[in-house]
Amino acid sequence: MAPAYATILLLALFAVENRGFNSGSALLIALAAAMAAARELPTTSLSFALASLAGQTLGLFPGVLESGALTYTAVPLLVFFAVLGLPSHRRWFGLVAAVVLAALTTAAWFLDSTWINYLFGSQVREGSAARIALQIFLVFAAFLVLALAAWTAAYAVRRASASARAQAEVESRLERTATALEVEQDRNRISRELHDVLAHSLAVIIAQAEGLRYIHRSEPEAVDEAASVIADAARKALTETRDVLTGLQTDSQDPLEQRLAALAVQFSTSGMPVTLRPAAGLALSTSPETSHAVYRLIQESLTNAFKHGDREAGVEIFRTWTPDGLELGISSSTDTSRQPGQPLPPPGQGMRGMERRAADAGGWFTATADGGTFLVRAFLPLSAGKLELEEVGA
Question: How far apart are the first and last CA of the chain?
Answer without folding.
Answer: 82
